[in-house]
Amino acid sequence: EKGGFDHFMLKEIHEQPKAITDTYRGRLLRQEAIIKMAGIEDNMKKFLNADRIIIVACGTSWHAGLVAEYIFEDLARVPVEVEYASEFRYRNPIITEKDVLIAISQSGETADTLAAIKLAKSKGAFVFGVCNVVGSSIARETHAGAYTHAGPEIGVASTKAFTTQITVLTLIALRLARAKGTISSSDFRHHLLELEMIPKKVEESLKSDAHIQKIAEIYKDVSNFLYLGRGYNFPVALEGALKLKEISYIHAEGYPAAEMKHGPIALIDENMPIVVIATKKGHYEKVVSNIQEIKSRKGKIIGIVTEGDVQVKELADHVIEVPETLESLSPLLTTIPLQLLSYHIAVMLGKNVDQPRNLAKSVTVE
Ligand code: F6R
């Protein structure tokens, strides 16, 4: 049932082109230049009248929420707050009928996320769910929602759930942007076209597998990793670090690249590998200067770069290329090599990739 792969996680990583296609099928209608999502259309007034959108989630789903914050604010110009469900529900949050709460959950069973939904509903907010598991508790508890259609995710470490959550949230942001008039029709069409090409580009990114395996071999025995990214790719850095921690038990931290000089730079020496997401669009020059700072402290640099990159290639110890896309869609590609890197390191260390110690697929207790 692993479809010829050694682990569910690897199978699910490779399923992402199909999963993302399934997620936008019937919703992204490029010919007609529209996005059709029943849960949004039926509740358009609620979204358009919202003073802000609050996103609640845990773990990887929270990282997808952070990516969505950039997309919603950028495209739909609506203020967004992203909260850990566990913190949100216990801090006496200010919620009104003018708030829209989006809960993101692969399993649809996460206890803290479910409790945050109930709290927001009790204050009169409109609650929208982004779940993978059909008929799950969160899918039932929310007023409306959109499924990710990623198919069953068996590996405990979330992979295709993450990229399909980002896909759904991107569709929502684009739909709202169109309704609000915060995106031009040509820009909107361009986004649809680029989003439609993502599955092909994910496929392309997966071809780096053998190269990534070699990098994994070099660094598998270190005890610490840093992951850096800026803008849309800051949450991807967090997600890359989480993936590595979860399945390889190597300590890893994700940081916004510019925060490095406010502390973590003290950790850098010749034993520290640093994964830097340095794709062409979005703060490229600034990330390059962060890479220079790392290099002058002898840190080992693994750059995630756009195909054909030259500048980072000159500075980094290793680069992994991903195809070019819009900045807002880049997390869907930059995530792929990070999933593969953690997978290969964990396998080389002999860890139980699909069922890491101490972890459960759905966290139904708080
Ligand atoms: C990470 C992981 C967890 C989940 C988190 C939320 O790989 O699997 O961090 O993302 O427990 O789970 P869901 O999305 O089911 O609410």
TrEMBL record:
It is found in: Cytoplasm. Residues 43-182, 215-356 form the SIS domain. Keywords: Aminotransferase, Cytoplasm, Glutamine amidotransferase, Repeat, Transferase. One of its GO terms (molecular function) is glutamine-fructose-6-phosphate transaminase (isomerizing) activity. The active site is at K361. The keyword Cytoplasm applies. Catalyzes the first step in hexosamine metabolism, converting fructose-6P into glucosamine-6P using glutamine as a nitrogen source. This is Glutamine--fructose-6-phosphate aminotransferase [isomerizing]. It comes from Flavivirga amylovorans. The gene is glmS. The chain holds residues 250 to 615 of 615 of the full protein.
